[in-house]
Design brief:
The complex is a heterotrimer of chains A (177), B (462) and C (479). Chain A has 177 residues and is of the alpha+beta class. Chain A has helices at residues 13-25, 42-46, 53-79, 96-122, 154-163; strands at 2-10, 29-34, 83-84, 87-88, 143-148, 168-175. Chain B has one domain (6-31, 98-448). Chain B is 72% helix and 0% strand. Chain B is built from 16 helices and no strands. Classes of the chains: A alpha+beta (177), B mainly alpha (462), C mainly alpha (479). Chain A: The chain crosses the membrane at residues 53-76, 96-120.
Chain lengths: 177, 462, 479
């Protein structure tokens, strides 16, 4: 089965933003919007849920902190305690000032890298991944709105989209997989 | 225009009166003579049974540390005569500490509120010099808070004068004969510093700095008000304010460090830390910013400052969060380096604090670091007034304690406890601060309408 | 009012640029061919790099003895160069992360190159400790890995080990921060590429970036969180470098102001290096409309501020050395200023404290030639600062019979020159193959701070576009 998708092109971020609002008011379904740069307020206008990457980063940071603590506690206190600089390694807490720098570094290391990896996985970004923007101009100065035309009157929809400020409109047959 | 309500005035006066009474009680409780202290110690020993013995143990272990390190902390006058005549020595020692206690309490509270004013002034100057676009809607609140450096500064100067004239004995290095070889008070290390640590020069510095800071404060307020009256497009007063702010910051970075050495670090005249000035600065900066947030939220809750939105509070909260972490960073840098090197002339400072002030010393680090970190980390919480106020109150309390553990170990030593004079002085200066600050805020429109960045600030949305 | 900006702010993008102008201008150096100057500079840098490589090979095959180190001065040029390069590496993250948190829009034009500079200079820095090991193939011994010697672990109480963690975290986090920001810009080059080879390469580099709304939302969140993590990270790195010295009990090294003062010094030298690089680059690849005089002026102001902070720290150290009453401290500082290395001390003072004060004058800080000169002077001064701290503190031992002087050998000098060559080789290659300006981010501030849109706004014409584009002829839908 094939579905019809309308590609509406815009050349201005403010026009795009108001178009998104109008299209949603008209109850058309916006599949996707491709933009060359982050448009402030677009995700709100499209009704995209907040991303939880920051919370992920916080949790990853806690993991890093625990790893650092466990590692240094094992190596410095349990496995081979030494007396360094007149500070015998009897307890982790008493020697903690010397361990704080690496506790901090590993917290950041884990939080940053795992968050970025999560981001790459969630947004499906990795080397040799094929780009999925339908038109090359969307990385230059065009903004592309993909509207689901399934079951809608194409002519009416096209006219409406031009009215919202679209500069070009394409109708795409998309094979459903 | 904001008008100080009579309710606020009553609260402020009540705080001042209550505070003054409690402080007076503190002074009245001050032991009259060494005999009184001896009696007191005796009854205490009787009441606690073994309590006194334990305290002595504690005490002697501290003294041992000092013996190892080869230095006595400034408050320990007695380590040489430790074995002989212990009772008398101890009583004399406690007598000195207890006589210092109310004075030190007043000093800590007076400095703390003065520091809030000065920190706010520095923040205001930074905003001006950085041409920040978000903050002009808060300028009048900042000007209100920083106005406190006039009365607060005068009070600080009077306190310094009283110490200089030996009305109290907070500063050990002022003792008679400290630089006279052979005198019973002779101290070779302090004697090496008299070129810098002497009362006239010390008072002169304090006076010069206070005048300089107040001059800038007076000017920047005047320029702001004049700019409001200026014609459209005429920003001459704004430009003048910009230049003065840049110059002030240069003056401030130097004088603030020296002030911290003079007014706080010299309580422990043997001890030194190059970082100390910047550490005190972080404390004053975060207290100032927190006070801006608290007063802004208060005024907003009363229906004023309608042009201040969530995003402004959010930004203030970010500063509270960021500067709290910066403060912790400086605290850790200073502590860790001294702990790690373990050099006797430096480490005594932390030894006394860890032994005699353990809970306060580490507690205030936890309050100043963990609370802002956990409460204000989440972006959404920074927009919820209730969270910001909670974090703010912790920060204010934490930094009061920070100043407390800077001052007390050298003046009151192990005889500390938070009693009438500490609470009283805090309340008194809080009342005075509220009264003066809100009075200044009521003197001018709450919107600095002439500021060229006001448009950005009003439309500020993050 | 979404794009409002106070009218007294000067535009950050001049030359009335539109979105596609930005694309074209930034992609131009990548699509064009290198000119003669580029090849000349590249050849010189390459020769310097190869010479340095030769000196490194000589050092490793013969031993550390070929350096000028001696029994008293066990650390000299190697660690000086290490700290110098790490310091330079600080402005990148500062411009990217700290200025992002402070919403400074002027960062957009310079953050990409500054981050590149960070990565390239941290690579140079990392070389020195590894070479100094003498047996660099055993460098992995610094990692806490189980080994055949039983419970022989690395020492977590040692600031040198903290450095291992700090520098590697810094390098790797800076790298992903840089690369994540590069994805949309690589995608832009990919989508414009004509030759299949370019399309393939930039396709791989861009990780298949498509620019969906959700991707951008995540992208912005990740940037912000990375900035929030990188800001304390950048502080921690130079703090830990300063701990290498300050945890010791050597007079002149053990002082508590070291952490923030090293950080300020690092930012100071880093901004100077950014200025050096960008003043050349904006000319060579014609980006004067993006890296404007205003950008240079703002960087000069940062240089002036951090230079003054460093100056205050110098004076604080000097004063507290006297105030402390500790005779070793007093001697260490007296010796710095008046001893046999007085010239290094005063070179440092002149370059770092006095020269940035010229930036108080608007005429001077908006002069390109003068800014360039000062940026070089500052970098020389910051090299001397590390030299002064390290060598003057060591060369007067507690034991006067060990007192000595340090003189570098040709190998010391050669390796240093080699790293400068290596750095420029990397930077020059970068400037021809990478988008040197974060074009997506510049586009996002174009309406606020671009001269075209600022003029439109000031002429009371709404840049609100429903009107602006409705008059354009509309193509028919191609069904």
């Amino acid at each position: 089965m094939s579905t019809k998708i309308i590609h509406a092109f815009y050349t201005d971020d403010d026009v795009l933003l108001s178009a998104v609002k109008q299209v949603r008011e008209k109850r058309y379904h916006i599949e996707e919007v491709f933009t060359p740069f982050p448009v402030h307020g677009l995700e709100k206008a499209m009704g995209i849920a907040d991303t939880r990457l920051a919370i992920n980063a916080f949790l990853y940071g806690i993991v890093g902190l625990c790893v650092a603590t466990a590692m240094m506690n094992y190596i410095m206190i349990e496995d081979w305690p030494q007396d360094i600089g007149g500070k015998p390694s009897f307890s982790y807490l008493e020697n903690m000032p010397a361990f704080v720098p690496i506790m901090f570094e590993l917290t950041v290391f884990f939080a940053a890298h795992l968050m970025v990896i999560t981001f790459y996985m969630r947004s499906r970004l990795w080397p040799f991944k094929k780009a999925e923007n339908p038109d090359v101009r969307t990385t230059d100065d065009h903004f592309l709105m993909e509207v689901d035309a399934h079951g809608a009157d194409i002519d009416e929809a096209t006219k409406f989209l031009y009215d919202t400020g679209a500069v070009e409109i394409k109708l795409i047959d998309k094979e459903e997989h | 225009m904001y008008k100080v309500t009579s309710k606020l005035k009553i609260v402020a006066f009540a705080l001042m009166i209550l505070g003054a009474v409690l402080t007076a009680v503190g002074f009245w409780q001050m032991p009259g003579s060494e005999e009184e202290v001896k009696e007191m110690l005796a009854t205490e020993a009787a009441a606690h049974g073994g309590g006194h013995g334990a305290m002595e143990d504690n005490h002697s272990s501290a003294a041992d540390d000092h013996a190892v390190s080869g230095h006595a902390t400034s408050s320990d006058h007695h380590s040489e005569g430790h074995a002989t005549n212990h009772e008398d020595e101890h009583a004399e020692h406690v007598y000195h500490q207890l006589s210092n206690k109310p004075w030190a309490a007043v000093y800590v509270a007076a400095f703390f509120f003065f520091m809030i004013g000065l920190g706010t002034l520095a923040f205001h100057a930074v905003q001006k010099a950085a041409q920040a676009g978000w903050s002009p809607v808060l300028f009048r609140v900042m000007e209100g808070i920083s106005s406190y450096i006039l009365p607060g500064g005068i009070i600080m100067f009077v306190l310094l004068l009283l110490s200089g004239f030996h009305i109290n004995h907070l500063f050990v290095w002022m003792e008679e004969g400290i630089d006279v070889v052979g005198h019973e008070n002779y101290d070779a290390i302090v004697a090496g510093k008299v070129g810098y640590l002497n009362v006239p020069f010390w008072l002169f510095r304090a006076g010069a700095f206070l005048v300089g800071w107040n001059l800038y404060r007076w000017n920047i307020r005047k320029f702001g008000l004049k700019q409001d009256e200026a014609k459209d497009g005429d920003i001459a007063w704004y430009k003048k304010g910009f230049k003065h702010s840049a110059m002030f910051l240069v003056f401030f970075i130097v004088t603030e460090s020296i002030m911290s050495w003079d007014w706080i670090m010299s309580f422990d005249p043997h001890w030194f830390s190059t970082l100390f000035g910047w550490y005190v600065f972080a404390s004053m900066f975060v207290s100032g910013i927190t006070t801006i947030a608290l007063i802004t939220i208060f005024l907003k809750s009363k229906g004023y400052l309608e042009f201040v939105n969530d995003s402004h509070i959010h930004d203030l909260a970010k500063f509270m969060f960021g500067v709290s972490i910066f403060w912790t960073y400086l605290w850790f840098s200073q502590f860790m380096l001294i702990w790690y090197s373990n050099m006797p002339e430096e480490v005594t400072y932390f030894v006394t604090r860890i032994e005699d002030y353990n809970i306060l010393f580490f507690g205030m680090v936890a309050i100043n670091f963990l609370f802002p970190l956990l409460i204000l980390m989440n972006s959404d919480f920074k927009r919820v007034n209730w969270f910001v106020v909670t974090a703010g109150l912790f920060i204010i309390l934490g930094h009061y304690l920070d100043i407390y553990v800077m001052v007390m170990p050298a003046t009151v030593g192990e005889s500390w406890f938070i009693g009438f004079p500490e609470i009283g002085a805090f309340l008194f200066f809080a009342g005075l601060f509220i009264l003066y600050v809100f009075n200044t805020i009521s003197k001018a429109p709450l919107l600095a309408k002439g500021d060229p960045y006001l448009g950005e600030s009003k439309h500020f949305h993050y | 009012m979404a794009h409002y900006e106070a009218s007294i702010r000067r535009p950050l993008v001049t030359g009335d640029k539109t979105y596609s102008d930005v694309t074209r201008d930034i992609v131009a150096p990548v699509e064009g061919v290198a000119n003669k100057q580029w090849w000349i500079v590249f050849t010189i840098a390459l020769i310097a790099f190869l010479y340095g490589l030769g000196c490194i090979t000589y050092t490793i095959s013969t031993g550390i003895g070929v350096w000028g180190l001696n029994k008293t001065i066990g650390w000299a040029w190697d660690i000086t160069n290490f700290v110098w390069w790490v310091g330079i590496g600080h402005a990148g993250t500062l411009i990217s992360a700290v200025l992002l948190l402070f919403r400074q829009k002027w960062r957009m034009a310079i953050n990409r190159s500054a981050e590149a500079m960070t990565i390239f200079s941290v690579i140079q820095a990392g070389l020195f400790p590894i070479i100094h090991m003498g047996r660099p193939w055993l460098a992995y011994w610094v990692l806490p890995i189980p080994n055949q010697f039983g419970s022989l672990w690395v020492n977590f109480n040692s600031p040198l080990l903290w450095d291992v963690f700090a520098i590697s975290t810094y390098l790797s986090v800076s790298l992903v921060f840089w690369w994540t920001g590069l994805l949309p810009d690589f995608a832009m080059i990919r989508d414009r590429a004509i030759t299949p080879f370019n399309k393939k390469i930039y396709g791989i580099l861009s990780f298949g970036w498509s620019g969906r709304a959700k991707d951008w939302q995540r992208f912005e969140e990740v940037s912000l969180v990375l900035a929030g993590l990188a800001t304390p990270l950048v502080l921690s790195v130079h703090t830990i470098v300063s701990f290498d010295f300050a945890t010791s009990v050597i007079p002149g090294w053990h002082t508590t102001i070291f952490p923030p003062y090293f950080v300020a010094g690092a930012i100071f030298s880093g901004f100077a290096m950014v200025n050096t690089l960008l003043i050349i680059m904006r000319k060579v690849v014609s980006l004067e409309n993006y890296i404007t005089i205003q950008h240079i002026e703002l960087m000069n102001i940062v240089i002036m501020i951090t230079g003054s902070i460093v100056g205050v720290a110098y004076i604080t150290e000097l004063f507290v050395a006297w105030y402390s009453g500790v005779e070793y401290e007093q001697y260490a500082f007296l010796n710095r200023a008046t001893g046999p290395y007085w010239w290094a001390y005063w070179a440092m003072m002149t370059c770092n404290v006095f020269s940035p004060q010229f930036m108080w004058f608007k005429k001077l800080r908006t002069s390109i030639m003068f800014s360039f000169a000062i940026s070089i002077v500052v970098n020389i001064g910051m090299w001397f600062e590390r030299f002064v701290i390290i060598v003057t503190s060591l060369h007067r031992d507690y034991l006067p019979s060990s007192w000595t002087m340090f003189s570098p050998t040709f190998v010391d000098i050669g390796i240093f020159i080699g790293t400068i060559g290596f750095f420029f080789v990397l930077f020059l290659l970068y400037s021809r193959t990478f988008p040197v300006i974060a074009q997506a981010e510049v586009k996002s501030i174009l309406k606020t701070s671009g001269s075209k849109y600022k003029k439109l706004r000031e002429n009371k014409m709404t840049s609100n576009a429903a009107g602006a584009s409705s008059g354009d002829p509309i193509a028919h839908p191609n069904e």
